[in-house]
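Thread amino acids onto this structure.
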C-alpha cells in the first residue's frame, strides 16, 4: 500500500470517549466517589457501634455461624432480630475478618453509600446521555443529609437503598436494550434480595418499576408484559423467600426450639409489619 494512502487514511480520535464523554467526566466521577468516601468515613468511629441492637447481633454472628445465619441477638441463638439478616451478614463477615470494632462494623455501610452514588450516576447517565447531570445527581445523593446519616450507621437501610438503587439501574438499562429480559430479571432478583434487608419496604418501588417498563420500554405491549411476568414472582420471590424457607425448614436453634416452626419463624405478622 502506498505511503500516501496510509497518510490519507482516517485516524481514530486521540480521545476514544471524546464524542460522548468530555475529558473531565472520568476525573469528575473519581473525585465525586472519593469525596463521598471521605464524607462517609471521616470520624466514623465517633458513632461507636451505632445501633447497639444490630451491633449485638453482628457480634453474635461473628461468634456462631448459626447465629450468623438466623440473625440472632446472642451467640446462644435465644432470639433473633426483628428483620431478616442480610444486612447483618455483610457486617458480620467484616467483623469476622477484622474483629469487632466501630470501623469493621460501619465501614461496610459507608462503602455501600459510595456504591449507591456510583449507581445513581450510572443510571442518570444512561437516561440523559450526558455526564454533567449524572454527576449532579450523584452529588445530590451523596450530600442528602439522611443519606449521610444512614450510610454511617448500622441499620438495614444502607443495604436496602443500595439494592433498590441497583434494581433501578437495571430497570433503566432494560429500556431500549435488546437483552431487556436479562436486566428486568436482574431487577427482580435485586428486589427479592432487598426483601432480606427490610422485608416489604423493598417492594414499595415495585409498582413504579413495572409501570416504567410498561410505558417506556420499546416493543409491543405483549412483549413488555411477558418481561414482567418472566421476572416476577418466579425470580424475586425465591430471592426473598429462599432464606425464610430454608430457616423454616429446620427448627431454629436455642432453648425454645421445641416450638413449631410455623410459629417460630414463619409468622407473616413479622413480614408485613417490617
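Threaded sequence (274 positions):
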Amino acid at each position: 500500500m502506498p505511503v500516501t494512502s496510509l497518510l490519507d487514511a482516517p485516524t481514530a480520535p486521540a480521545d476514544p470517549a471524546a464524542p460522548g464523554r468530555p475529558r473531565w467526566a472520568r476525573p469528575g466521577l473519581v473525585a465525586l466517589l472519593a469525596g463521598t468516601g471521605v464524607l462517609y468515613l471521616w470520624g466514623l468511629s465517633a458513632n461507636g457501634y451505632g445501633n447497639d441492637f444490630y451491633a449485638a447481633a453482628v457480634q453474635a454472628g461473628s461468634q456462631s455461624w448459626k447465629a450468623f445465619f438466623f440473625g440472632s441477638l446472642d451467640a446462644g441463638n435465644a432470639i433473633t432480630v426483628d428483620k431478616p439478616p442480610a444486612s447483618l451478614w455483610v457486617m458480620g463477615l467484616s467483623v469476622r475478618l477484622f474483629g469487632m470494632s466501630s470501623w469493621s462494623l460501619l465501614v461496610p455501610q459507608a462503602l455501600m453509600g459510595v456504591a449507591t452514588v456510583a449507581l445513581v450516576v450510572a443510571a442518570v447517565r444512561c437516561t440523559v446521555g450526558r455526564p454533567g447531570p449524572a454527576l449532579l445527581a450523584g452529588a445530590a445523593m451523596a450530600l442528602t443529609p439522611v443519606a449521610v446519616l444512614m450510610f454511617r450507621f448500622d441499620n438495614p437501610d444502607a443495604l436496602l437503598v443500595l439494592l433498590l438503587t441497583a434494581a433501578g439501574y437495571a430497570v433503566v438499562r432494560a429500556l431500549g436494550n435488546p437483552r431487556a429480559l436479562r436486566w428486568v430479571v436482574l431487577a427482580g432478583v435485586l428486589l427479592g434480595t432487598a426483601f432480606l434487608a427490610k422485608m416489604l419496604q423493598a417492594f414499595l418501588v415495585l409498582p413504579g418499576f413495572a409501570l416504567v417498563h410498561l410505558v417506556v420500554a420499546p416493543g409491543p405491549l405483549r412483549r413488555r408484559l411477558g418481561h414482567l411476568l418472566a421476572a416476577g414472582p418466579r425470580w424475586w420471590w425465591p430471592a426473598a423467600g429462599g432464606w425464610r424457607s430454608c430457616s423454616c425448614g429446620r427448627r431454629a436453634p436455642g432453648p425454645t426450639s421445641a416450638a413449631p416452626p410455623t410459629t417460630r419463624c414463619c409468622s407473616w405478622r413479622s413480614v408485613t409489619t417490617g
